[in-house]
């Protein structure tokens, strides 16, 4: 190997060492930034202004992320905290959702009343209903024949206020069963409809509405019979 070749090899080695040094420097900067910023967590910002006393739903917020060390202890990181909550002041678009602005929804609104019914656990979505959920109340009424029997959606979007403790009952119309008391906030007419279904329906079933949405049942779809299904 002549002197020119040796110089070429040395320059090549020097270039490699410089590249490794630069790479190590970049890693050091990244490590330093990470050590100062820390891990990121999911938080939520308001999409549009939210008026006071509005019922909060996940669709009102957009997900983003921020370094955990920059967040206050009241930053909401799980939208499950919104269940049954409202706000007492206007939330501005773009603001970070904080738990200290949340308040419990009033149990009943103007024009509503509380009504509690006992629901068979097997027909009440098997323990999946929680306060703040919306449900459709369906009664099945027995006719003289199967063809004249019917299922009727008596109330849509009934707001659940509370769910009691599962208890065993005996001697009822349908024999031994497990029931749970569920309290709703309903207007006067819907309260009458639910009371009628509890008194005269063979079964009262609760259909859980998807979280963050409202059920829309057309008037023609509220009543089902075998004859109408042909």
How would you describe this structure to a colleague?
This protein is α+β, with helices and mostly antiparallel strands. It has two domains: 65 residues, Antifreeze-like/N-acetylneuraminic acid synthase C-terminal domain (Type Iii Antifreeze Protein Isoform Hplc 12, Alpha-Beta Complex), CATH 3.90.1210; 117 residues. It is 21% helix and 31% strand. The chain is built from two helices and eleven strands. Strands 5, 6, 7, 8, 9, 10 and 11 form a seven-stranded antiparallel beta sheet that branches. A two-stranded antiparallel ribbon has the order 1-2. The chain has a two-stranded antiparallel ribbon with strand order 3-4. It is elongated. It starts with a helix and ends in a 5-residue tail after the last strand. The model has no long low-confidence stretch (mean pLDDT 80).
